[in-house]
Specification:
The chain contains one helix and ten strands, in the order αββββββββββ. With 196 residues, the protein is of the alpha+beta class. The strands form three sheets. Strands 1, 2, 3, 5 and 8 form a five-stranded mixed sheet that branches. A three-stranded mixed sheet has the order 4-10-9, with no helix packed on it. The longest helix is centred in the first third of the chain and has 31 residues. It is elongated, with a radius of gyration of 29 Å. The structure holds dinuclear copper ion.
């Protein structure tokens, strides 16, 4: 009877056990296949991004975040709720660390409402619970979301994109009021409400 080998790695393999060099070769092949797949996927992401197919989800409309307060649609006097000639409402807001301007908006119920937002600094979020309104607010882009509120009511609107140390305190209020309240609003008037 042969002397038993003390090192278990050098013992002859039982029938049916795959020898180590074969295992190694198979693992090498799989690593190569996985690395190739990873390379292809990274290439697809980079190529589609560079050739312009990747954009922020809501609206591809660019704006210079450095001059928001100087000219254009997001100057301070134009923020808030405007009533358009067709009776719909457009609400313009700026998100900035750590507040929305204006910090409380009032909109008519049973009326198409378009929210247009942009950021003065970093990425923020705008979300109205139980509605279709949910967008990121990215500096350099105008985010646009449309909705209609069936009933008057109040919405607390927290920023839902982590934007810095004051993120938890960043919120606005959307107050939906009966549409009659907007009956005599002129085309150049912008309404806001008081934050409580
Ligand atoms: Cu703004 Cu979080």
């Amino acid at each position: 009877m042969a002397e038993p080998i003390s090192n278990p790695l050098q013992r002859p393999l039982a029938n049916g056990v795959v020898p180590e060099p074969v295992v190694e070769r198979t693992e090498q092949r799989w690593v190569t296949i996985m690395a190739t797949m990873l390379g292809v996927m990274m290439a697809v992401i980079v190529v589609t991004g560079v050739t312009g197919a990747l954009h922020p989800a809501s609206n591809v409309e660019v704006i210079d975040p450095r001059t928001l307060h100087l000219a254009g649609e997001f100057v301070e006097s134009n923020l808030g709720t405007a009533i358009e000639p067709d009776g719909s409402a457009t609400v313009r807001l700026i998100a900035e660390q750590y507040d929305f301007v204006p910090d409380c908006v009032v909109v008519p119920a049973q009326t198409p409402v378009t929210f247009r937002l942009t950021s003065a600094d970093v990425v923020h979020g705008f979300l109205l619970p139980n509605t279709n309104v949910n967008t990121m607010v990215v500096p350099g882009f105008v985010a646009e979301v449309r909705t209609t509120f069936a009933q008057p009511g109040e919405y607390e609107m927290p920023c839902h994109e982590f934007c810095g140390l004051g993120h938890h305190a960043m919120w606005t209020r959307v107050s939906v009021t009966p549409r009659e309240k907007f009956a005599d609003q002129g085309p150049l008037e912008r309404t806001r409400c008081e934050k409580h």
